[in-house]
Design goal:
single chain; mainly alpha; globular; disordered C terminus
Length: 252
């Protein structure tokens, strides 16, 4: 497919960025830092490609090879790239000052990655019907999935940073890798099975990515509401101290 048509693959990621921004509309983040997180996430796809090509040389093949590709080649490299993008873009910046910010910036890094990856997949489509098939499936599952997986590491990184609770950035990264790996493994295992009754029997595995994305979204939404609730408590005006009778004049 032509490059101009493939650029339509940026639309799902841009739409999701706008939806996340609306959720954070009360105390929005600086646009410069949002763009930086997106840019770093997008640029991180370049080294990931070369790392994945190198790792695939050690693929044992068969079903174990499918799991190797899903968890080690794809999930580990891509989620680590997003974590590094989050860290270098905003981790030490003063704008990262709320719990919800972890989700906002991490999903931005994830969507930056998904945006570039999506265009690459669409450029590889050989027919128009193939193009639309890739576009629809990735818009519904893969692009939101990248944002959701990254969102977990952002949430737990922020909770550890501000509250000292939870597994932190590395624990959130582990969760993201497990979710991403499960998403890919279901598809890769079905593709690795020899054609026949066994492959048909395992065909329901193709539903796993949808389950991972939907369940992951629901849980991340709950995390986002909790982060927002805690941020509201932090920013709530503190009540005036009660003073002994006759001392109120000092506050006038």
């Amino acid at each position: 497919m032509g490059a101009l048509l493939a650029l339509s693959g940026t639309l799902p990621a841009i739409l999701l960025m706008a939806l996340v921004a609306r959720f954070d509309s009360k105390r929005p983040e600086p646009k410069k830092q949002l763009y930086l997180a997106t840019l770093f996430g997008g640029l991180s796809t370049l080294p990931v490609i070369f790392i994945q090509l190198g790792l695939e040389k050690g693929n044992p093949g068969g079903l174990s090879g499918a799991l190797y590709t899903a968890f080690f080649v794809a999930a580990l490299t891509e989620e680590c790239a997003k974590a590094l993008a989050l860290y270098f873009a905003v981790w030490r910046h003063p704008a990262f000052d709320e719990r919800l910010d972890g989700i906002v910036y991490a999903t931005r890094a994830g969507l930056g990655f998904a945006l570039v990856e999506n265009v690459g997949y669409l450029m590889g489509a050989e027919t128009l019907s193939g193009f639309f098939g890739i576009f629809v499936v990735r818009a519904i599952l893969a692009v939101p999935g990248h944002a959701i997986f990254a969102g977990y590491m952002g949430y737990w990184a922020a909770r550890k940073k501000f509250d000292g609770v939870g597994p932190g950035l590395l624990g959130g990264l582990a969760i993201a890798i497990l979710l991403h790996g499960a998403y890919d493994a279901a598809l890769f295992l079905v593709a690795a099975l020899p054609k026949g009754p066994l492959q048909l029997l395992m065909l329901p595995l193709v539903l796993v990515p949808a389950v991972v994305v939907v369940a992951g979204y629901r849980r991340l939404s709950a995390h986002a509401r909790e982060a927002l609730r805690l941020d509201e408590i932090t920013h709530a005006p503190r009540p005036m101290p009660r003073l002994p009778f006759g001392m109120g004049f000092v506050l006038r």
